[in-house]
Amino acid sequence: MNKALVILQKEWLELRGERTLLLTLIIPPLILTLMPLVVISAIGRTPDEDTRQLGAVVADPAFAGLSERELGQAVLGKQFGLLFLLMPLLVPSVIASYSIVGEKTNRTLEPLLATPVRTWELLLGKCLASLIPAIAITWTTALIFVLALRLVVVSDRVYQVIVSGSWVLLLLLSAPSLALIMVAATVAISGRVNDPRSAQQIAAVVVVPLLALFFAQLIGVLVLSPLLAIIAGAALAFLAALALGGANVLFERENILTRWS
Predict the structure, then answer these.
(1) Contact in structure between 97 and 203 (CB atoms under 8 Å)
(2) Which end of the chain is more exposed for a tag (fewer CB within 10 A), N or C?
(3) How much is the pTM?
């Protein structure tokens, strides 16, 4: 475990020197946090007739009794809330894709693979280097969104609909597992490609199920509840464990060392 922590420290020291990479980690989360606040605020100032159709097809009982403006903000707010589940997928994919391919480019991979570090310790250190910032950024930006939302909603009822217990539970339970799944997938793929962008593009298929959740809630097919959030969190935790084990198996250390040396 100590060797994994050494790998973690090494990864973070290298990350501090990659300014472009740091900007990539900061700017998209800021956009995904500020954009919903701007749109929700604008909807609150829109005439009622322009927001009448926003909740027409939504079957969520939480919207019952809302006025036109409240409904417009609540519908869009709940959809934007799901965007925060994209952050634990986007942030670690940027870091993890460089964790193997970047080392190969910098000619530091061969010495690292030749050290007496077990494969699982190497992967654990690299995964933690991506996982910890991803969770920290996700929860921090979500907290900013929750605090700033108070300033733009037209009523407390809208705030309660958007910042529901189900959403908070889903974010707390699912963000670590989503990040770990993306990290494991990206690290495994990075060991087989020569370009960080290729690793990011291939690992992006993990986002597809989340988009399905987004559209299912939009058209009213799926209504988020605490039970559903717990089930989703448990299922993602199981998938994360499988993904981490799969990454350990797929990471062909000896082949990488001989092919890239």
Answers:
(1) yes
(2) N
(3) 0.80
